[in-house]
Design goal:
- Keywords: ATP-binding, Kinase, Nucleotide-binding, Transferase.
- It contains eleven helices and 41 strands.
- By secondary structure, the protein is an alpha+beta fold.
- The chain folds into two domains: 236 residues, Transferase(Phosphotransferase) domain 1 (Transferase(Phosphotransferase), domain 1); 387 residues, 7 Propeller (Methylamine Dehydrogenase, Chain H).
- It has a seven-stranded antiparallel sheet with strand order 28-29-30-31-32-33-34, with helices on one face.
- The two termini are 52 Å apart.
- The N terminus is likely disordered.
Length: 728
């Protein structure tokens, strides 16, 4: 049945009668993003259904964010949340249905009945600590834990409202223009360093929630959110009225330094032995299995004056980042609202998607490693290549057992991959905004370049200058076996020999006007090229022999396509662009272009990079949302989706043992288990003087054996043990 529209001036006068197949029976509450309704499933299950306001449903950016928040909410659906029953983020009015759990919010309970008794407060402390432990184990950080987001039920507290941010009506904004949380319950780092917000921020919020439950007001109290923000950062909390037995633990939760706060597990230990009442109230501990694609989480409230949808920020679920060996927590980073496709396109001179390809040796199935059985632990290292002036993350390449990196002011440096020691370096007069990763050539040579600049060869042993391939016009370079193909983006294309730098050929490609070189395939020895039509209706796709420029094959294919890699059997993989960097389908073309398959994606993805293992394509979007898509199925199918919460990311890179890695603009390196779609580790941020500047292009990490190499905006290169990401 189509939605029915009401009349009147109320903001929900256009409110629908149905959300999917669910008839909306009564309004439970309203918030900045939408309205929560009571509904029932076909079996009579009572549901709380959130329906987005119509004005936001027409915003493509909001739809993308809502979809990501649904995916994040799926990860935490369980004993401590309101389980999700159904959702449709692609509906005309996006909606999410969760199980309706009767019970007042903590805010309503305190408002109506006053502060909790000591025994009730102890039960609440234990229940919320266990809830946060389970939520953090799922790789999610709430970032807006407050009394109105805690439901009090017969089986213990439920934490709700996991991810719908309010884009308007906010007084405090971060540098990206979004309020991250509610000021009276925000941690100091949420005001000072929003991109460093992690699980410890939830613990700080828990301390504030407990003070409110014990006293009826928070530890920092003012009518002005700006004064509250100042108090949170600079003043000591007011714990007057908190029971003496809990006051020390609450004070630890409210420590200014995140490292000084207890973890949820430590809080649970501090509360042992539990009283009989507390033991009866706390749900049993459990292990959370990896969730398959298809479930999600949401939130609801009891009828009453408390708004039903007032979370001010979306959840950003990222990889566990333990502060020491053995801990397993998650971190969250603020997603920057900055345009990133322009810089990436500039660096690639129109080559399309920034692509990470599986090495030829890893095309087939991999034998999983056992990170829990590590014979010799690699301690890791960090080396700073650039120490002064504005910095950018260095870009690195690996080959011949050596690590080569470029940075601002450092044209090329060779590092020892075991110790990080700089063996030699060569300065560069070109101050490139985004360093380009060096690449191994032939006969003891390594190549270096700057974006759209000349290619220079150096000796691998001592860094002695070799040949230089320059041109009057800026050129995009593509290493391709024993040749380097260069294109000026205006129709000029040529190749030089990787040993001597001597020009091999310079001519137009038959059938192409302005060809753009794509990825090189070592097994076939062919380089993909493409040229889109002005209206985006079709693309000329083909492959050439890099040493001769001879076109091996070419075909006109429908759509605006970019070659991005190959599947395990050598099939050419292309991404179909809806507009700009949005990808709505994958196109597979057999060698020669004789057979073409088009597989629609479940939603449009702002792709930052692609990594292929066998028939599975991993697509990473600009906001850290990772999708695993199996191309073997007739119509393709999503294996899993993962919201990491990382903003402005690199291309993903695959490693042995079902591992995938990518970098973030704040210097973090994240690891994902591709078999389960789970975040399994991340490094700490590495910022210059604690400041985060916008990086137009984030270099991808490198995987070499049992080591992963990352780079950071503080000008450093670092290495970690690939076998145990949980200890990074």
């Amino acid at each position: 049945m189509p939605p029915l529209r009401g009349t009147g001036a109320d903001r929900e006068a256009e409110g629908p009668e149905y959300a999917g197949d669910y008839r909306l029976q009564a309004c439970l509450g309203a918030g900045g993003m939408g309205v929560v309704h009571l509904a029932a499933s076909a079996s009579g299950l009572r549901l709380a259904v959130k329906v987005v306001h119509a004005r936001y449903a027409e915003d493509p950016e909001f739809r993308a964010r809502f979809r990501q928040e649904v995916a994040a909410a799926r990860r935490v659906s369980g004993a401590f949340t309101a389980p999700v029953v159904d959702a449709d983020p692609d509906a005309v009015r996006p909606w999410m249905a969760t199980l309706y759990v009767p019970g007042p919010t903590l805010a309503d309970q305190v408002k109506r009945n006053g502060p909790l008794a000591p025994a009730e407060l102890r039960r609440l402390t234990a229940g919320l600590a266990e809830a946060l432990r389970d939520i953090h184990r799922a790789g999610v950080v709430h970032r807006d834990l407050k009394p109105s987001n805690v439901l009090l039920t017969d089986t213990g507290p439920k934490v709700i409202d996991f991810g719908i941010s309010r884009p308007v009506d906010s007084d405090l904004h971060t540098e990206t223009g979004k309020l991250i949380g509610s000021p009276p319950f925000m941690a100091p780092e949420q005001f000072q360093r929003p991109r460093e917000v992690g699980p410890a921020a939830d613990v700080f919020a828990l301390g504030s929630v407990l003070v409110h439950a014990a006293t009826g007001h928070g530890p920092f109290d003012s009518d002005s959110p700006y004064i509250v923000a100042y108090q949170v950062v600079h003043d000591e909390p007011d714990l007057t009225g908190v029971p003496a037995e809990l006051a020390p633990l609450v004070a630890r939760c409210l420590a200014k330094d995140p490292a000084e706060r207890p973890t949820p597990a430590q809080m649970m230990s501090a509360l042992l032995p539990p009283s009989y009442a507390a033991e009866a109230f706390i749900p049993a501990q459990r292990r959370r299995p990896a969730l398959p694609y298809g479930d999600e989480d949401g939130a609801h409230r009891e009828p009453g004056p408390s708004p039903a949808w007032d979370a001010d920020t979306p959840v950003r679920a990222t990889a566990p980042a333990p502060p020491r060996r053995g801990a397993r927590l998650g971190r969250v980073r603020l997603r920057p609202r900055l345009t990133i496709a322009v810089a990436a396109a500039l660096a690639l001179t129109g080559a399309g998607l920034y692509t990470a390809l599986t090495p030829p040796a890893s095309r087939g199935p991999e034998t999983p490693t056992r990170p829990d059985k590590v014979a010799t632990v690699f301690a890791g290292w960090q080396t700073t290549l650039q120490k002064h002036g504005p910095t950018a993350a260095p870009a690195c390449g690996h080959g011949g057992g050596a690590l080569y990196c470029s940075a601002r002011g450092v044209g090329l440096a060779r590092l020892d991959p075991v110790t990080g020691a700089v063996l030699w370096s060569r300065t560069s007069p070109v101050k490139a905004e985004s360093p380009v990763a060096p690449f191994l050539l032939a006969d003891g040579l390594v190549g270096a370049a700057v974006p759209a600049g000349p290619v220079e060869a150096y000796g691998t042993a001592d860094g002695a200058p070799g040949w230089t391939a320059g041109a009057k016009l800026p050129e995009l370079h593509r290493p391709a076996g024993s040749a380097v193909v260069l294109s000026d983006g205006r129709g000029g294309i040529r190749a030089v020999d990787s040993r001597s730098g001597k020009e091999l050929w310079r001519h137009g490609l038959t059938g192409f006007g302005v060809p753009v070189p794509g990825p090189y395939d070592a097994p076939s020895g062919l380089l993909a090229v493409s040229e889109g039509s002005p209206d985006g209706s079709h693309t000329r796709v083909g492959e050439i022999h890099p040493r001769t420029g001879e076109v091996a094959w070419q075909r006109n294919l429908d759509g605006d396509l970019d070659p991005v890699g190959r599947t395990g059997d050598g099939t050419l993989l292309l991404a179909s662009r809806y507009q700009a960097s949005l990808v709505d389908a994958l196109v597979l073309s057999t060698p020669g272009g004789d057979t073409v398959r088009r597989l629609s994606l479940p939603h449009r993805i702002d792709v930052r990079g692609v990594a292929v293992r066998g028939t599975v394509v991993h697509l990473l979007d600009a906001n850290g949302h990772l999708t695993a898509f199996d191309t073997a199925a007739e119509k393709g199918r999503v294996l899993w989706e993962l919201e990491t919460g990382a903003g402005n990311v690199s291309a993903p890179v695959l490693g042995p043992g079902d591992r995938l890695y990518f970098s973030v603009q704040d210097g973090r390196l994240l690891a994902v288990d591709t078999a389960r779609g789970a975040l399994i580790g991340q490094t700490r941020p590495r910022l210059l003087n604690g400041r985060l500047e916008y990086a137009p292009l984030v270099p991808a990490p490198l995987v070499a054996g049992e080591r992963v190499f990352g780079t950071a905006p503080d000008g450093s290169v670092f290495a970690v043990d690939a076998r145990d990401p949980a200890t990074w």
